[in-house]
Structures are given as C-alpha cells and as structure tokens.
Amino acid sequence: MSSRLKDVAALAGVSTRTVSNVVSGSASVAEETRARVQAALDELGYRPNVAARNLRAGRTGLIGLAIPELYSPYFGELASLIVHAARDRSWTVVIDQTFGDPEAERRLLDGDGGRLVDGLIISPWALGPEELTDRSRDVPVVLLGERQPQGLADRVAVDNVLAAEEATAHLLASGRRRIAAIGLQPHLRNETARQRLEGYRKALRGAGLEPDAALEQPVTTLHRKDGAAAMTALLDAGARPDAVFAFTDELALGALHIAHERGMSVPEDLAVVGFDGIEDGQYANPPLTTVVPDKRQIAERALQCLADRIYSPASTVAPLDIVVPHRLDVRASSGRRTG
Amino acid sequence: MSSRLKDVAALAGVSTRTVSNVVSGSASVAEETRARVQAALDELGYRPNVAARNLRAGRTGLIGLAIPELYSPYFGELASLIVHAARDRSWTVVIDQTFGDPEAERRLLDGDGGRLVDGLIISPWALGPEELTDRSRDVPVVLLGERQPQGLADRVAVDNVLAAEEATAHLLASGRRRIAAIGLQPHLRNETARQRLEGYRKALRGAGLEPDAALEQPVTTLHRKDGAAAMTALLDAGARPDAVFAFTDELALGALHIAHERGMSVPEDLAVVGFDGIEDGQYANPPLTTVVPDKRQIAERALQCLADRIYSPASTVAPLDIVVPHRLDVRASSGRRTG
C-alpha cells in the first residue's frame, strides 16, 4: 500500500503524509490540496482501507438511497448506477422505497434507534426539505430532482423546464398543434411534474399557442397503466390530441398502447414523446422518442456530493445546485407528420 | 401493549408469557406452539418492539437482498415486494447487485469487518451454495431460484421445468412446430435457464418432435438487447422459427421488436411467449403471453423462512424446498395460427 500512496503523492505533487491525511479524512488539509489529492486518488483508482477509516471516524460505511418506487424502470436504472458507483467508494447502499410514506423516509435517516447511514440520497415525495435536512440529524443529504429554493442541501437534477420545453418544441416542429401533456400529479408535492408542465406550456406559448386545459391530463402514479388511463380519458373526452408529451416513458408507453388499441397510427395519427430514457422505450413498437437525463452523471455527482460532505465536514461550502445534462433521443414514435 | 399481548394469547390459546417468549425469540417454546402464536400474531397484525428485541439478541434489524441486477424489471418488482413485506416485520433491507461478482455476494454476508445483516435472501449467480451457506457465518440464507440438491439452505422458486413445459405446450397446441428457445446462458452457472430448457425440450418430445439445436439460441444477459440479438441470429441463420419461447419477458420483448422490424406479423408469422409476468408485457404491441410466477408469494415465503431461522435458531428443521405457484397468462402475442 505504501508504494500506492507514493504514486498518489507523486501525481498530486504532495507528500505521502498529506495523502494519508486526506485518506483518513483529517480536516487539517487545505481544500485545494485535498481536491488535488482526491483527483489523484480517483485517477489511480486507489482504494483505501475504508472499513478501518470508518471505524475510527464512527461511520457505518452505509449510505441510504430513498426512492419512491423500486419497480419503476427509471429508478431501477438509477439505483443500479448508484449502487455500482458506491461500490467504487467502498460504500454499501441501503435502499428503501418510500411510496410517499414519511415514516419510511424518517426511518432511513434514523435507523432503528441509532444512526444507520453516513449519508442519504433521496428523491423526496413525502418529507419536505426542511425535515430532510434538519441539521440536528447530522447526516449529509443529497436531493434528487426536487428544486428547493432555500438551498438547504445539495441537489442534483436535470433542467426539467428546459427539457420539457425542448420535447414539446420538437413536436411543434413536426407540425403538431394539439399536444397533450400527461403526467401532472395535483394530489402530490411533485415538483418535477410541475416543472415539466411549465416547460410544456412555455413551448406552446413560444409557438403562439395558448395551453388548453382539456389537453392537460392528470395521473395518479407514473406507470403504464396511468398513461393508458390518461390516454383513454383524453380520447373519450373528445380532446382530439395529435401528439402526447408524457412526463415519464412509462406513461408514454401506456398511451402508445391505447393508441394501438384504438387503431391509431403512430406517429401518423399521434406522435408520442416520453421522458427518462429507459431501455424499454428503444424496443417499443414504434421505438419511443424520449428525453434522456444523464443518469450516470446523476449517480456520480450525487455520490461526490455525499463524499465531500462526509469526509470534509469542516468545509463550509454552501449547498450546491448541480444541473446534469440531458438530450432528446428522436425515434420513430414522433416522426414528421406526412398526412 | 399488554392488552395486545392478551389478545394474541387468547387467540392462540396460550398464556401471555408464552406469547412474550415467542416474541422475544426464546427457544423454550415448542415448535407447534410457536407456530400457533405466530399465526395469531400475524392475524392480529401485532408489531412487537423489534428494535429492543434486536438489541437484546445482538441483531441489526437488517436483512440482505442480493440480486444480479436491479434494473431488470423482474428483480425490480421482486425487490419491491420484498422491501414492502420486510417493513411489515420491521426489517430494513440492504440491497446489493452482484453482477456475478463473488466479492459482492461475500461482502453482503460479512459486512465491513463485522456482521452486517441478520439474514440474507440471494438469487445466486457467483457463489456456489456451499460457500453461501457456510455455517461458520451463522447467517441464515434463503436461496431464490436455484435448485441445490444438497439441501444446504431454504429455497423458494417456481417449478421452472413444469412452467416451461406448459408454455411450450401452449405454442404446440396453437399449431406451432418450429419453436425457438431463447435464453440459455452456457457461460454461467444459470440453473434456472437450464431448467427452462429442459421443460421446453420435454414438451417438444411429448408432441413427438425432436429438439433442434438450430432453434436453441444462447444469450449473454437476459435483457431486451440480448433477445433482439438472438432473434436476429435465428432469422439470419435461416432457422425459420414460427414461434419463440423466451426465458424472460425482456428477451421476448427484444425478439418481438426484431419481428416487427423484419415485417413479420405477430402472432400470425411468429408467436411469442415470455417468462416473468413483468408489467411491461401487458403494454407491448401486441400484449405478451407470459408465465407469471407468484412474486408476492416468493417474497412472503422467503421472508417467512428467514424469520423462522432468525427467531427460532434452535429449531432444527431441515432446509425447505418451497415451490410457489405460477400461471400462464395468454395474450395476443401467441394467438392461434390462422394461416
């Protein structure tokens, strides 16, 4: 191991003692030096004896991941990436599904009587940011998705307004005018859905169209069955959409299913665009156009935030608002209108 | 709480002291009595103070769930059910993805230096049952899926041979004769795939057909992309299948995708049947026929096995081999041949 420390020290241009201080989480290293050493550690793939380090520091080596639902393909893919990346840092991930149950979110923070996790990554549904980031808990928290203007904790997300605006603009550019939005959850504090609706409306107004309430279809949850129910409701109400922007791919796939059942051609009669970039969409018939968040970067940046808070608690950096990239993958479900 | 104990005692026909002994995991209660009390506890939804009980017994209240991949819809749905059912028992689930990495499976058993979990549910890919159930670890293990004739640990699974035989017989009954099997993994110790191949061949032979090696298409992993690659390989090799039995729904959906791309009608030109009963299949175009394991029962029975081993370690019941029910959901992807 000492030769490895030497390699890291040489690359970072510091003494092995400084490397050792960084690895042991000592607060005596200047932030700039620490960052340089960390970069060298990362580059050389150095894996310190984390168990020993945790023991000394009173840590468990566990980080919590609280997601609303594990059986959603989006959260499944994201959790998979987070577990994978956490392993590189010798962390074990404790995953919990919250189902919008505040008690579940609290339990992950508290463990059974004692503190269970060293840090928590949470996609909140139930607890507000105030409770999640209560400083008396002393557990660093990273929020996924939700914007929280108070800046109470680090946050990692795509620009949902911009992404939704681009998806809707893509449909407008292909000649669609009656674009339905499926995915609002008025019964929940779902900030993500609110932002996607905002982007959708912005694009419509940018094209000189006034948003039509009859085309904005709410849902209960974000799965295929909800997309199917929303599409059925739109068609039965005579809303005559020529396109659908669904706030998740699962909703989009449910809408696509109903379009087929009703004998509509996709994309000729109805263009469909989803959000999340789940693998399923590539194999839909036709393949689904979707907004793809960079999930690998969401996982990596969230873990980096946690590591910084856990191992450099002395640093008083203000909560970060990290925006990760997204792209629009255009596939056959939203081809140009030929009719 | 005492009135609750009294209710349980009355229902089970024992003293409150006996209920208390069962709840505290004392070994002094006869197995038959313990089972009766447990049934009463379950029926009345009694939730004991597990934190205190764990503390006294040197337990962590954590159980491990080791699955190959979290982003597979089947394992996502199963993990979701297990996490949900574990909460009813006041257990927190630590999920790890093994990706066929033996180190990951060992780590879950061992924690970081100390024992992390009170018990482990594992769908093994990497470690053999001998290592998983090494008694020196003293952690009860429940195996999902893999048959292990030595009877080293409790095991919960569907009858894969029978289920595959039924799925293939269904295709034969609809007039198919060149039924491809997609899903063998010759590079892995995947016992489940081997059993499904056995059932497939058994059905063919039962119909007087000799299995054709050209129709048995191996795969690398069990996802849509592998199903698509396998279907492409079958068609390009001129195997002329009139049906596909895929060992997972994801493989089936990948095969379905290629059939569409090649202009084949489903089910007219090609019938497709999958395995797993994932939600995605219901919304495929056409909806996918599939073997549906009773996942809720897999989750419940696996947790019950763990609870029995953890709270009644003195009981010397031999390892159980629990077979949970399955059914074949026939949908449009395998309709009767009309041509």
Automatic annotation (TrEMBL), chains A, B:
Signal peptide: none annotated. PROSITE patterns: HTH_LACI_1, HTH_LACI_2, IQ. The keyword Translocase does not apply. CDD domains: HTH_LacI, PBP1_LacI_sugar_binding-like. It comes from the Bacteria. Gene3D superfamilies: 3.40.50.2300, lambda repressor-like DNA-binding domains. This is LacI family transcriptional regulator. It comes from Streptomyces ambofaciens.
